[in-house]
Amino acid sequence: MPTPSNFNRAKRMLKKLRTYLGRVIRDITRKIEGNSGLEVGFAQLLLLARRVHEQQQRQREPKVYSLHAPEVECIGKGKAHRPYEFGVKVSVATTISHAKGGQFVTHVKALRSNPYDGHTLATIPDMQMLAGNTIARILADKGYRGHNAPIGQWAIVNSYGLVRDTHSPAV
């Protein structure tokens, strides 16, 4: 359980690490000064290190969560057991039927800035262009219902193990 002493200790260690990072940035900058080859080579790394050094705890955007993968974002899930995940939301399209060799992935796209699930249907024209065919059916969960669904295509919603067609009249 977090206690005030643990918070204070964490704050001290963060300040110490920030001091170390500032020293390293200044030292590297001082040592590569005048050597254009090294300045070009270290430019991206120093920019990333300065972003980490200057960012604040409650800063909104853009924050660096990972040095080896700076494109990583914090995704708030709203679930008690795992409120936050780190990464990038990805849209993946596969074929419905299984072929002899397995199911094929027809389209993959990384979606920046954590869009709402229903708004990711805007990737459908890209999928159709890549596949060279129109999409007849869309299988998705409830988050996609009623958002940017293309006219004339079926959006099927999976709810608690039941498959329901959202565009057909109620029976």
Biggest sheet descriptor = 3 strands, mixed
Strand element count? 7
Uncertain residue ranges: none
> Rounded to an integer, what's the Rg over CA atoms?
24 Å
Strand arrangement within the widest β-sheet reads 5-6-7
**Helical amount:** 25-40%
Helix-strand makeup class: alpha+beta
Q: Which overall shape is indicated by the principal axes computed on the Cα atoms?
A: elongated
Average per-residue pLDDT, rounded, comes to 81
Content of β-strand: 15-25%
- Give the domain tally: 2
How would you describe the overall organization of this protein?
- The structure is a single chain.
- The strands form three sheets. The chain has a three-stranded mixed beta sheet with strand order 5-6-7, with no helix packed on it. Strands 1-2 form a two-stranded antiparallel ribbon.
- The model has no long low-confidence stretch (mean pLDDT 81).
- The chain folds into two domains: 4-54; 88-165, no CATH class.
- It is an alpha+beta fold and 171 residues long.
- The chain is built from three helices and seven strands, in the order ααββββαβββ.
